[in-house]
Amino acid sequence: MTPFTSPDLADALDHIKDVSPALAQYTSDTLLDEVWARPDLAARDRSIVTLSALIARDATVGLPHYLNVALDNGVSAAEISEIVTHLAFYAGWPNAVAAVGVARTIFAARKIGAELLPAANVDFLPLDTEAESKRAATVQENFGHVSPGVVHYTTEVLFRNLWLRPNLKPRDRSLVTVSALVATGQVAQITYHLNRAMDNGLTQSEAGEVLTHLAFYVGWPNVFSAMPVVKDVFAKRAG
Amino acid sequence: MTPFTSPDLADALDHIKDVSPALAQYTSDTLLDEVWARPDLAARDRSIVTLSALIARDATVGLPHYLNVALDNGVSAAEISEIVTHLAFYAGWPNAVAAVGVARTIFAARKIGAELLPAANVDFLPLDTEAESKRAATVQENFGHVSPGVVHYTTEVLFRNLWLRPNLKPRDRSLVTVSALVATGQVAQITYHLNRAMDNGLTQSEAGEVLTHLAFYVGWPNVFSAMPVVKDVFAKRAG
Amino acid sequence: MTPFTSPDLADALDHIKDVSPALAQYTSDTLLDEVWARPDLAARDRSIVTLSALIARDATVGLPHYLNVALDNGVSAAEISEIVTHLAFYAGWPNAVAAVGVARTIFAARKIGAELLPAANVDFLPLDTEAESKRAATVQENFGHVSPGVVHYTTEVLFRNLWLRPNLKPRDRSLVTVSALVATGQVAQITYHLNRAMDNGLTQSEAGEVLTHLAFYVGWPNVFSAMPVVKDVFAKRAG
Question: Rounded to an integer, what distance in angstroms lies between the CA atom of residue B35 and that of residue C71?
Fold first, then answer.
């Protein structure tokens, strides 16, 4: 199911038409029929990107619709659970808690219960000890004396805990992270996380199409601010 | 009508007084009586700047009030329709859709029907082919291999479609864009769009006063981050 | 009272568990039991930082809870009144007005009346004339011709009025300002305001711990964008 065939969407388009017939047409013809169907990024990935952008920007009005679309597009409830948790750290606790308020209603309506959700304590994915030690040493050297607490939780809670939870693949976790960074204009963190995303399996053409998709959901300026950084990452990886 | 004489405003000021008598006084004496009456920017322009800032920041609480003020200040329903559509692209789809939810209620209350709104399909303003070809070539060269989709839609949907819609003058479309950029801290895009705004007829003293007005609606830090870029644009155009 | 013993919190944690048992556990074990109890920043200061972050980001969902926590942690109603007013200028009027909507309900429930709030007109703290003249001269030289209005209100309303109101200590006013800057990614303004905060009595270890606290409430990326600037301020002051 694409967003265009969602049962509530005809109503939503009518509401948009009450204010802007042009926006209704851009929504149905350009965004939903055309952009969502572009081949360079799967509909499931577009759903992950969209949810990440909405939650990172606290745009809860559209969230019920896009949570349903995500579930219909093959994003599992367990993955949505992990996406919300991941964004508590990458977009802020209040954003995740606001998303919880919406998601639990959708989960209840679709009879998604506790047995479908990842437990609080799970067996972790194996840690790439060498890469993680290198990352931790760099951050400790740079910021150990600036904020010992940030350095501590970055290692212990983020990279030795959150990122190792198995119910969201590292590639998808990276997709969530990069989407949130572009969505909130956090250009400075894109280099590290886009490289990590591509190391985790996101292709260059997928990454470019993530930007196309995000242009519509977070606005052109956020995407144009990200593009020079993305370009630089692509160039350096190409060697 | 200034915002200060709006029928709901006495109530709003009383509510503010329940938490902060000082904020109520700054609101009535400094912001509404004084700033809105400053001569360097027309009340109609201030309404466009305010709406753009609120929609770009998804600040929907004040939107009903400021939509009514805008209509009273001479911003037409057709122009508001185009402002919302324009901001879908420059602030993100969810922001525009949230604004639709508010605006359709205001439009209904004021009996503004479909006949007052621009159609989805309109006769476009003439395109400045030379300037647009140059812009498109630069963007293609810079980012054609980073995100072909962004480059495609920037040309086909933004500059050869949205910007040519006639119901919002290019100067006002630029005013919306620049206001949204300052409101969301998108410093990197200000140089291009402020130059475009001034090419489209925004004067330097109006641009400076847009910053004064925005300081109150989007906070001093966004404006102080924009000022060095604005200064540089002014200097280069003078030089 | 820590946030964990708030009467509504058990419900809130149950709601989070409906979507993510992991997020509920991070919330109770890591954020509330551990981070809030860390010794480098008092619970009262953590409440000021949290309120500032929520208001600056317009995250009103959690605001009722954290307003109650702040009052329980020793932030007075008069101080909350001044924090909201201060953030009108440093995060934008609509953010302050949205906070008013929440705070007046909390104040009413706790029978906090007008007699506990600072008056609109108060006796100002003494002005450091030399430092303020220097600041005003620098801003006038840099931006006097860019936006005379911004320069005028920065001096007359911010530094010769708002900052001199006595019901929020300068050190706490600075804590609010720095928290809002980090919370909204306004990196460019951190140098001036962190120096001012430390001149006003915020210690280096408190400042580092403000970042730890904010990482959870505004997301890791905002904090990692701020850290190089904070590091530079610490180094220059030590040097």
Answer: 34
Token pair of B102 as six digits: 């508010």
B234 shares contact with chain C (CB less than 8 Å): yes
Domain assignment present for residue C142? The answer is: yes
Give the residue from chain A lying closest to B115, CA to CA. A18
Greatest Cα pair distance, chain C, in angstroms, is 57
Q: How many distinct structural domains can be found in chain B?
A: 1
Q: What's CA A196's distance to the chain center, in Å?
A: 14
Question: Given B19, B53, B218, which is nearest C100 (Cβ)?
Answer: B19
C145 occurs within a structural domain: yes
Say whether C23 and A58 touch across the interface (CB within 8 A): no
**Contact between C21 and A94 using a beta-carbon 8 Å cutoff:** no
In-domain check, residue B151:
yes
pTM: 0.97
B74: in domain: no
pLDDT digits (tens, 9 = 90+) for C84-142: 999 999 999 999 999 999 999 999 999 999 999 999 999 999 999 999 999 999 999 99
The string over A90-104, giving b where at least 16 C-beta atoms fall within 10 Å of a residue's C-beta and e elsewhere, is bbbbbbbbbbbbbbb
Write the ipTM: 0.96
Residue C160 lies in domain: 123-164
- For C38-51, give one letter per residue: b (16+ CB within 10 A) or e: eebbebbbbbbbbb
Query: B125: which 2 tokens?
Result: 């303003």
- CB–CB of C182/B221 below 8 Å? no
User: Quick one: tokens of A35?
Assistant: 């952009």
With contact defined as 3+ CB pairs under 8 Å, the chains touching A are: B, C
SS3 of B89-102: HHHCHHHHHHHHHH
The answer for B 136-195 residues in CB contact with A (under 8 A) is: 142-143, 145-150, 152-154, 157-158, 165, 180-181, 184-186, 188-189
CA distance C225 to A82: 24
